[in-house]
Design the sequence.
């Protein structure tokens, strides 16, 4: 029999209202006791007594046994989650930055106080990827996990490639529809998918990685020339986060635009939809598809976590506790398309194995390999408006990489 949840809800924006719409009128053995908001003057459709501007009014309320945190401020969200878990309250969150940045500490807090933190809604909206990594793939050897984790950037790229819109027009549409913020850099700059990749990697491999150590390059510098090149090759460009095992003990992670071919699952993932590809040793390749943005899709994922708490569900972090000896590394080279203006860029990034080169007054590019370490060390250079980079999907190894990897484990095909 399920236990009744008395909920304190933080945030009543798009996702908070979406969640409330879903649970209203259903007999789910739960009750929203109080809702914390920032602006008490804003007109709302619910009774005024439900709302408060005081966090402590919810966190110190002994009647409330479950906190649902759906605010934008990652620092405030962490303080809410930390106090709630320490006070014996379970927490459901959709704040990917907060979770990615503080996951190791939050896992320890759960163990110390016997509480549970669930966050399916923080990664890929309605797609239950975290639960699957926890339960279905808990004893599976994973070669890699990648996909489209950000609905805003995917919407923009879909409009560019399917309707011929300019980047600026597509971005404005995404903002008008509420898919992208007024300052969209978290989405188009690859930060949002980086946080989601950080969380997914913890469950896929048992590695808690500082998001600052993961390379993220976005789509904000994409030009008409880049789009034309992709079209001529029958590619689409997608923003793809990747975690991949390159040896028996080493994992690489990065977020980069990618040239996607027609036979790739991601080729037909359009608009605000997300898609996740899991490459497993025994289950082989599997693909998850669903809406990655919007109040109701994300609200549905949050509700799934809330419902699971009625039966005392918690993540077990089996791969983390196995202490499998995996490490996060930059010992790999990535084949890329690099559009640039100054030859200094090619030299600085130490592009090797160049298989294609083109140059005219207004457009220069090379196809070649760049070490992940060099990309990380020169990430400021990659933000220059004159530079756009996209992976081809191929990972390569220099002799130095091979030697370094061989010292720690065998290469994985």
Sequence:
């Amino acid at each position: 029999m399920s236990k009744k949840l008395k909920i304190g809800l933080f945030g009543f924006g798009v996702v908070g209202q979406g969640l409330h719409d879903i649970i209203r009128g259903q007999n789910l053995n739960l009750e929203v006791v109080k809702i914390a908001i920032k602006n008490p003057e804003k007109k709302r459709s619910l009774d005024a007594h439900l709302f408060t501007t005081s966090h402590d009014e919810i966190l110190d309320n002994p009647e409330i046994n479950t906190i649902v945190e759906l605010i934008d401020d990652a620092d405030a969200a962490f303080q809410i989650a930390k106090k709630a878990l320490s006070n014996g309250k379970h927490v459901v969150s959709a704040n990917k930055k907060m979770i990615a940045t503080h996951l190791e500490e939050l896992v320890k807090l759960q163990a110390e106080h016997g509480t549970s933190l669930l966050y399916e809604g923080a990664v890929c909206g309605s797609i239950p990827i975290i639960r699957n990594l926890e339960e279905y793939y808990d004893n599976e050897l994973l070669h890699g996990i990648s996909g489209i984790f950000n609905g805003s950037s995917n919407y923009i790229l879909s409009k560019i490639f399917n309707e011929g819109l300019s980047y600026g027009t597509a971005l404005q549409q995404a903002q008008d529809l509420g898919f992208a913020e007024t300052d969209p850099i978290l989405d188009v700059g690859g930060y949002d998918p980086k946080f989601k990749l950080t969380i997914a990697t913890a469950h896929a491999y048992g590695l808690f990685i500082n998001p600052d150590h993961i390379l993220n390059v976005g789509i904000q510098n994409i030009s008409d020339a880049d789009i034309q090149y992709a079209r001529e090759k029958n590619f689409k460009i997608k923003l793809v986060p990747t975690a991949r095992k390159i040896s028996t003990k080493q994992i690489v992670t990065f977020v980069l635009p990618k040239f996607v071919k027609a036979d790739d699952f991601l080729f037909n993932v359009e608009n605000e939809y997300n898609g996740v590809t899991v490459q497993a040793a025994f289950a082989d390749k599997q693909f998850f598809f669903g809406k990655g943005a919007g109040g109701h899709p994300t609200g549905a994922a949050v509700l799934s976590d809330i419902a699971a708490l009625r039966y005392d569900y918690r993540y077990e972090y089996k791969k983390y506790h196995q202490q499998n000896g995996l490490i996060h590394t930059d010992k790999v080279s990535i084949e890329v398309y690099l559009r640039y203006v100054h030859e200094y860029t090619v030299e600085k990034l130490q592009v090797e194995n160049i298989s294609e080169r083109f140059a005219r007054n207004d457009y220069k590019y090379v196809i070649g390999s760049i070490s992940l370490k060099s990309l990380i060390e020169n990430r400021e250079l990659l933000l220059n408006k004159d530079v756009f980079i996209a992976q081809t999907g191929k990972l390569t190894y220099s002799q130095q990489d091979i030697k370094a990897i061989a010292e720690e484990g065998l290469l994985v095909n």
User: Anything to note?
Assistant: The radius of gyration is 22 Å.
